## 1
Amino acid sequence: MAQEFHLKLITERAGGGDPIVRERQLPGPELSIGRAADSGIVLTDLTIDPQHAKMRFSGPGRITLESVSGRPFLVGGRPVQRADIDVASRPQVEFASYRLAFEPGPDGGAVVTVTHAEHESHATPKVFSLQSKVFGRRKMAWVFGSGIFVICLLIPLLFAGLLSQSKIHPDQQWSTGPLSKSHAFLETDCKSCHAKSFVAVRDESCKSCHQASHDPAAQAKVLAKARDGGSPYRPTLIFDHADPKKLSQSAPLPDGFGAKVTTIVQRTLGHPTDRCASCHIEHTKVTPPAKGGDPKAPLADKPKMVVVNDCESCHSKLKTRLGKTELIDTPDWNRHPAFRPLIMTSAEGVKPTFQRMALTGAPQERNGLIFPHRMHLDPLGGVAKQAIGLGAARGYGAALECESCHRPDATGRSFQPIQMEKDCGSCHSLAYARVGSELRLYPHGEVEKTMMIAGGGSMGGSNRVRPGTARPTPLPGTAPPSAVSGSPFRPGGACFDCHTITWTPEGRPSVQAVKLTTSYMPRGAFDHATPEHGGPGQSKAGGYKCADCHKAAVSDRTSDVLVPDIAKCNACHGQPKTKTAAASDGECATCHSFHAPGKATPKPGHPPLETLRWSQITAGKAPG
């Protein structure tokens, strides 16, 4: 009998009691996992891609899970993109807030139990729950609520005549101050943030307008909510730094006995110090206004920012609080762990697959391109001679350098994508014939069309000419293009030297996809535009040259990962400031940001995103 998946979906009841269990059979051998409605196993968490992963039977009692979106999942607490599991060992696999438990099923199949773990990082202890007999929150709410009603509303109303000169406004006694300008439009809509009475503002309220997402539809929904709510500004969208529960566990208690006691009491009473509102404080008290100023004006454009814990306080002894974490304790820059760049292990499929690897093992990436940097950068080689002659029209006119092909993008932080026609076409011509004064070119990247031009199934032969020159032109109707140009997929052909080509039993070529990495360390904000970092156009400013960090001149394979190790960065970062390290202070925020992985913390003086009004964005006048 064919192997099948027996799926169990467990849903907790909102009012407690026995959970709801739904069961159904799904035929094998393969099943999709994702947020899309047509997935075999539908997981509705927004952090899960519509087509996130797939699983299939790979043998008796064995299942292979593989990510199709490029984003990992957890097996045994470790993030992976592919895993082979033995059903008999009853393993568990985690996708965001969902847990999939496997166990053997009948006839060699598998039973998959799906449970949804609600991450309630700010849950109130049971001693203060609604069911508690001593400190029941319902009784406490009535007692304190009645007292506040009497003191703050009833008494002022009864003695309004006696206190008329005091100008008491009972409805304003609940607020400790005005809202910031960014949130001033919510002045009369308390429930937008205070969703529950007598409960501190929860992160869910903040994320409803500020939560970033890799899903464009989810991000558009968040922005639409802020706009429809009346916000005159575009809110800043942020990613969670880590799982809220792990953040709470990893945060140490503050220094000082009194501060420790205060923090413990806050956490016990449901006011933990790891909420959004712990660092971004609203209703701040107004300082005495300047002469002629508005006494009701908010303190600042943004909520007051309070640093509860800096990076070092959490990451210096992280393993003592999170025993299963894979992160290495990093008390300062000089003890920063070695770089583990994200290496492309396969360029095949819809999305390439990546894996973090240490540079000490000389990792090789599989990007599908054949390109020897050494040959192209040799100032006395044949490529240099071609660049001097053929490349003059393209602005080369000399031996190739890094900036000949790697051109900075508009920001200067990174580089424009490499384009064959623009960056390689001067020497590697795609021309196969001439019609009058017009050159006919193979359509780069379109294998089927190239095969049709080259003669369909006739893939043999070669008639390559010197790069940069047109091939002989046949008279109309005398010969097909393949008779002139030969096969571009055979040795000597236009495609052969740069692409990995395999052949099917039917004699048809298959060209491996080329996908070049744009960022080897997406969680580190390296900025090539910084003069001290050098790069194209920056070396004259006293910084490094490309070759000082990237050993391209000795690389014979494009699979070489030319990322420098951390020792190169140590020359400036973490060391006393020198002439070449004036802007390097060794702080974590130089390369990392709490809410935006891959970006540095914005420097003071940069215009905040909140200053951009909706009209500017919709008119296309604002970046991003």
Note: The CA atoms of residues 535 and 546 lie 5 Å apart.
## 2
Amino acid sequence: MLSACTQQPLPEANYDVIPQPKEVKLTEEKPFVLQGKTKIHYEEGLQREAQFLSEYIKDITGIKLDCHASPRSARNDVSNAILLLIDSIGFDQTEAYEINITSKQVVIKGADAAGVFYGIQTLRKSLPIGQLPTANCQLPTAVIRDWPNFPYRAMHLDPCRHFMDLDSVKIYIDMLAMHNMNQFHFHLTEDQGWRIEIKKYPELTKVGAYRNGTVIGRNGRLYDTIRHGGFYTQEQLRDLVQYAAERHVNIIPEIDLPGHMQAALAAYPKLGCTGGPYEVWKRWGVSDDVLCAGNEETMQFVEDVLNEVMDIFPSQYIHIGGDECPKVRWQKCPKCQKKIKELGIKKDARFSAEDYLQSYVMNRMAKVVEARGRRVIGWDEILEGNVSESAIIMSWRGTEGGIEAARKGHDVIMCPGSHLYFDYYQSEDPSTEPSCVGGYLPVSRVYEFQPMPKELTPEQQKHIIGLQANIWTEYITSFHHVQYMAMPRMDALTEIQWNNPDLESRDFNALVERCRRMAQLYDLYHYNYAKQIFNPQVWADTVVPNLATHKPITLREQPNEQYAYNGAPVLVDGEKGRCAYTSGRWLGFWGQPLDAVIDLEQNATLSYVRFNALVNKGSWIYNPSQATVLVSDDGKKYRKVGQQEIEISTWMDKDGVFSYELEFEPVTARYVEVIIKCHDLPKDHDGYGHPAWIFVDEIEIF
């Protein structure tokens, strides 16, 4: 019989945290007991880190540990203590740390203050959250050594489409710090709202920070009449810079130019090619109205803005955008055309004169930034023309831009939409999810991302300085929703940012278990997060077995690389795609038809073909315009047996998955060719003048 006074063992720390430390060596000593009498000793320069550690321990255990400034000479004399110090840890690596846990002391040693801070984060995440019958807990004795693989580890936030107050942004920075991220990409200007006070141009916030309504639904033609907006004062932003710096997070401001500037044009119409009138945009997408590149007053405006931005933000990096800038206004603008002639710009086989005019704008602004000892970051479109040699390229349209940039000697930040756009759905069934732009990006796909392209040499790979995930807020209207979109995908992201393990050594099931422990921290701080990986749903939408199921299939035209996934077999694998077009079950084609040939492997009689297509008009995805079926006996000579014209969807029609059938007189053949063509985007669509995407899944033959 157990004695009534038998004590239960103390809850124990677990060092299998996110991101997983590179080296954890357990020793055989008695554990260190964390208790109310434990004290935190820190050397000069680490007072704030000591305060953070004390706060974290109180949050988790309820114990408030006292902090004491102590000279290094006294550190061996204290017991029952946690020591914080900066010291060599055996190799030259910024942000590295070592934790040495004995029964007497816990010594957190960093190569710099940031290293100490990340050591504190590891200790914080190892504590037994939610398992404390008493305030005390024990730490197994060990030596932990750790360092990051990438110097640039970031998340992005867009408060322009939907404004986020300053307190929410501070919580976002706390989230980054918890996940060992050191850069915060703050997107401050857009067509839909200007969010930063510029004292020389007060109308930017008086007019440009507010829109008089917002499009309803998926970018249709209905709007609400609710005024929406807000902005951050320079005083608030300086406070935010200090808040982030204490947590070893650098804020990178983005002033997106020369496109995505309609809010600025609404405030100062003379900055545009037409002179307006303009309004702060109420819809999503890409506006044709951009800054006038031929107007010297406009260029002076941008220089003034960038200089005020650099007065606020000490960041080494300043993001100047460069993405999605239509040239239609420049093509007709006398000032822009005059500037093209003045500069002697000529089109060539790759780029138009207007493309090179954008390069002129971007390079001119790069010089403004470089004159103050900073570096510019631009989206990968700035490669389209001449780009400043020192510019850092942010590769978002896949990894191709990053590969090209690294080959040219540019530093690169990887953030492809295929793996790192956290505004995509986390479930294949959007009906179970809060609204978002579309697509499908589960935690597992984030964890599959390989930031080091094999196409690059080892020397070129050194230019990949890091990676980040982006959160755009067209359909994300609250910070509560932002948190849901970010976590736990941030867990997978930080594992790659910090460790970048080989694909073969990544264990997703082990990651899920570490995520469960992180979720306890999320609960402690009342963070909202998605729970799909803890309660996975398996979608089993299978098709009726048919003549095409699992048969050999080839494509005469390949899908867009970003939406190719497992290629042609996806179309006959017996599983239907749901509404998320990035689920891996759809193939996406843009500007060219789907042209598939299915080998039935023997002659068979068939009389109709059925396929599914996806419609998501806000994402430029429309139903097909035409479907044609041809058959062949030998795979060489084909004859048409069926064709159907399909009317384009309107804004009044619902989005979703739609089935199309082509019936024809029974015919016997071995090979079946299915050609599915796309519409051009209609006049009432923001992308008018471009082809629509088509996304097709399961082709069935009966």
Note: The first strand starts at residue 23 and ends at 26.
## 3
Amino acid sequence: MKKTILSLILLTAGILSMKADNITVGGLNRSYNVYAPKNLGENRPLLIFCHGYNQDANWMQNSEFKNDNVSMESVCDTAKFVVVFPNGIDRAWDTGGDRDINFIKAIIEKMVTQHKIDRNRVYLGGFSMGGMLTYNAINKMSDQIAAFVSCSGPSVITPKAGLRPIPLLHIQGTADNFGGVQPALNPWIRHNGCSTTDKVVNNYNGFSGAKMHTWGPGNDGVEVKLLELKDKGHWICKEPQVYTGKEIWNFCKKYSLNKTSPNVSITAPKTGTKYINYAPIGEAVFPDITITATADDPNGTIEKVEFYDGTTLFATCTAKPYKATLPGDKVGKHTLKVVATDNDGETSTSSVEVTLQAPTSLIISSAFTEGGALPAGWTTYDSSERRTGYSSGYSSGCRVLQFTGSPRGLNYGLYFRNINGKAHQGWAKYGLSDGGTTLSLAPGHYTLKYKICNWNKPEFTPIELSIEKRTGSVSVASQTYTPIVNIGNVASNSFGTIQQQTFEFDIVEQGNYVIALYAADVEWSDCILGQLVLAANSYVATNIEAPMSTVNSQLSTDKYYTLQGVEVEHPTHGVYIYNGKQVYIK
């Protein structure tokens, strides 16, 4: 009984320390709770934290009886900042429009007047639906918010064009639809120019099962973080080791809109770029990688820009243009980092990740793991819109679809279409320059394995596969296949096994190539590509033909010829070298 009375006293004290207030926005009377610690002072930060669906501002207050409140007051008292808990209309938020964006803007103005808060250190976060509102605010008021936090708040929002690098923390339990978190963060990771490989701290702060994932620093030194909480559900964690209120503040306090450190950004190559070179063992030659960057300082000058491959410094620039070249000779992932230093000795970092691969076999479709996205390396065109990977947030048109029916022949597939029905006006291509992947093939014999079906064409429209030169789009080999499975235009439909098909072809000239798939010359023809595997069978071409008369006219006086480094006698038929190219005499 005494424990209950003491808890009620503490609860009441917490409520009384929180001031309720009102403000008129867009003709509506809106309410919120505000907590300002004693001896706040001027030019202190502001955190606005939004409740979840069917909750209110009081729910987010300091109560030891709830697991889904943020309990910020003790953190405010120590760090000296103001926290505001707004009330949504009908206990909900407008997560796509401007109604509640305008409410947040009005709160900021009122806090500037009442508490003289620092406009450059305003932070926004929310739980559940409040987290969804937070993502909406990134695109609509990033000029007023220095950093953003979502707790268990899913998002389908993707960065708008021209948006500044965004500091972002997401906190979520693994028992709370955790599988959708990473795909939601991917667009922000790439937008910020962060490495797509995360740095992971296991047992974060000594809390068993907790993991802190960090991507970055990216452009202007910003990071994207994901705090993964093992077995936690849809609530806010308040464990002694991982106290959500403290985690929010520790992340946000690093960021300000009027930062004095340099701005730096790698402009090329873009993160996720791949150079794939099929060649005999030890003979893969990669192009040099040119790294370009921009850098400026808001309150001074840039003294130097340093270029790193991982931890190895390989170039320093002291004046524009900030540009360096890395020899492309080491297979594997390279984290290219640029560090800008200003005249005050402050630094900022930008990094991108590129990969050099020398495979004999590559599962290209392994990147089909995110619905609504176009994976890196791919470019699509449907006779109306051209899309390039990596990009995401698509709810229609060419994109990866996730299938949920049971049984189903695919979990994911790349959908593309031909709207107007004209020849080669609907396609998906892997290896174009704007897709961020270079595919280099040495002379030899290759196999392309694939699984294809139609999406909404019960009459089964054929698909053309073509191997094309990257420059000029000249086809060097092609095959046409007509699917025998149609999914039926609904991702939750059941559909059967899709048989793997095989396309064998020869490359006679070293160069950069593109794998192209074309929908049929029929209006609204379509395709689902579920599997694509490219393998080099042999670096000896097996099916290349040249007229005998042409060969004899050039080589009739010679008795021996070089074939794959071995001297052989002129055959009446077979493969040999002609003008530096492998040809087949028939």
Note: The mean pLDDT is 87.
